[in-house]
Amino acid sequence: IVVIKSTVPPGSCLSYSENFSLNIVFNPEFLREGTTPNEDFANQDTVVIGTPKSEAYESVKNMFEKVLIPNTQYYRASTTEAEMIKCAQNTMLASRVALANMIYDACEKHGIDYVKVKQLAFDRFEILGPHMVQVPGPDGMRGFGGKCLPKDIRAFSTIHDSDLLRTIIDYNDSLRDDIGQFLLNFRKEIK
Fold first, then answer.
1. What is the pTM assigned to this prediction?
2. DSSP string, 39-105
């Protein structure tokens, strides 16, 4: 069994399985940047195991049961569904960071205290929560960065062409002068 945890565009594992005759499982990691991998790994309460094979699902689940918290919930999905779950989750998080930055810009333009707006509009409401709306972010920069969000929202954009996604990616790239610009140019070249 080959377990892939890194983000790949949906459909990749199916293609790998067909082209290389491998038993591939996609198991998206849900680790936060800024925390230790062991902290998030050991305390995860949800594990998605993407495989068409019951035996592979059981093997991977048994492996996790030996090291994770007892109340962990396990979910089986196809490899493509599991790949999409990872892209969808990080696309939503990336969108949230970009939207928070747009709201920050509006507050700055109109002389409104963003910190107060953030505290009362997001932090106090469980449905929105305080996550991903800090401007600047934990890395001291505007927009979303790191290794996951820029890569994952772009992975999602390879399977869904959307004005909203392009706007979010372009807006975020205008806030950051890093690998995002390189990836944006790469995305344009492959189209």
1. 0.70
2. HHHHT--EEEEE-S-HHHHHHHHHHHHTTS-TT-EEEEE-HHHHHHHHHHHHHHHHHHHHHHHHHHH
